[in-house]
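Reviewer 2 asked us to include a model.

Predict the structure of this chain.
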Amino acid sequence: MAGDTLRISAAAGYLALPGELPVTQAVVGRVARTGQPAFVRRPEDDPDFMPIVSGVLSQIALPVTVDGKTAAVLSVESRSRPLVEEDLRLLSPLATQCGLAIENILLVSRIHETAMRDSLTGLFNHRQFWIDLPAGVERGRRYGESLSLVVVDMDGFKRINDTFGHPAGDEALKLFARIATKRLRVSDRVYRLGGDEFAILLPSTTGNGAAHAADWLRIAVRAEGIAARDAPRPTVSCGIASFPVDADHPEGLLAAADRALYSAKAGGGDRVMLAVGRTNRGPQT
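Predicted model (structure tokens):
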């Protein structure tokens, strides 16, 4: 169930079914809304009964509960004989088992998600980066698409930590994470590689396109301060490399972006550099 809609995810014995059904319709919709089982002994007596196939003699619909909420509905219709109380007793444990199975799937998904996230910023972590970068390069190679990598370093981060304390440093890191996730595309992925170093993967994006996105991000970070009194406004430096122009494999792409980042830092920070120094966007923007 997604919001106010039931999606048909598994079925047997039907030639055709609607892909989705509002919870305001049919017996299964009533069960989804109320969380109460339904035993329709005579379809003609239930105003919510919706005939999808002809000849249905009876129906049992049971809520599938996950974390105390109705997540799905298990529905059985019979055309060969009327369903009886014994059928209800047999189906009820099955609905319970379906709920437990969904809970286990969600638990595994949450564990996996936690393992791939940085605990402070909520961004993807170094481990996930080294899963996504090779996959992105391979996709670019297969479909002839560009892939740009932006590596980001916070300027003067050690001074913020040493002068204003680690809470101020943490706030600066979370500030960058918040701005990056809000301003970039849904398809772009942001990672915290460690310390004050971040990475951004921009699929289907050339170096110049990545430079515009990174510069927009740089200006947004500089425009916002952190709560620590008298703390300087954080700034970032960005190095960019693109597949296949600057490198044709993951390690080479990261090395090229790192060299561009080094040039940005050596130039005074608060700027964006593309690999081989093709573009320089700095504080004058």
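The chain has two domains: 5-115, 126-281. The first strand starts at residue 5 and ends at 7. We have added this to the supplementary material.
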